[in-house]
Amino acid sequence: MWRPPEGLFPANAWFGMTLRRGGGSSGPYASLNLGLEVGDDRGSVLRNRALVLTALGIDGAGPARLHQVHGSRIVKPFEAPCRADGFFLEPEDPWAAVSAADCAPVAIVARTGAFGALLHSGWRGARDRIAALAARLLVERGVEATDLRAAIGPCIHACCYPVGPEVAGDFPREVLRPHPAGVALDLPLAIARALTEAGLPGDAIHAAPECTSCRADDFYSHRRDRGVTGRHWALLRLERSGAPDARRAGDGGSSAPP
Description:
Blueprint: E1 13-17, H1 42-56, E2 74-75, E3 86-89, E4 96-100, E5 104-110, E6 116-121, H2 123-127, H3 130-140, E7 148-152, E8 162-163, H4 165-168, E9 176-179, E10 182-185, H5 187-197, E11 205-207, E12 232-238
Parallel strand pairs: 2-3, 7-11
Antiparallel strand pairs: 1-12, 3-6, 4-12, 5-6, 5-7, 8-10, 9-10
Helix pairs in contact: 3-5
């Protein structure tokens, strides 16, 4: 599991993202592919999902999931499955998960652990400021923006993310970078910028340095692999109190496999 740095989130919050190692899929889906609709063998994917659920101590049907549409809608877990790209969570809500293979998984959690949000954000989500919308939802629940903490998980970085003028034109120059193909989008910076504009302190935001396109051993990448690739899950859960002992593998920002 990839995990954010220890201490970023309160003890009752668990946020992490699966790596691509440790499963049973083969070929371009090797090995811990969790996506059922990407061309992989269904039995392999279901076994991979069972491995993750067992490792994290998730009972029943698994985490709440969404039909992700690259939008900005944020819902409660009981509304899933539905067309949306984010969850609003409170303690003792069920586990929630979003899928990713270059897009950024984002978790925002109140310092008290009373509220949180889990988001899927590609360039469209960043353009539509889904992270800022989630922060606003938490503020509407009485949380000060300065008491929010955020982690932007591994995603594609500007080194591998050239975009056309129709995409670049939707972003400020500060989040665009020169690229041999023209111009590239710094996706984690675009998300972090939206969060700081929503009132989060800069030192309350952790952006993973890993680029999913560069790190083929650890991550699937839709762009690098031309669409034939697996999917990760990024998961968030808020406990009522205490840290979940059964889900501590990979604490501290490690990129070691489970």
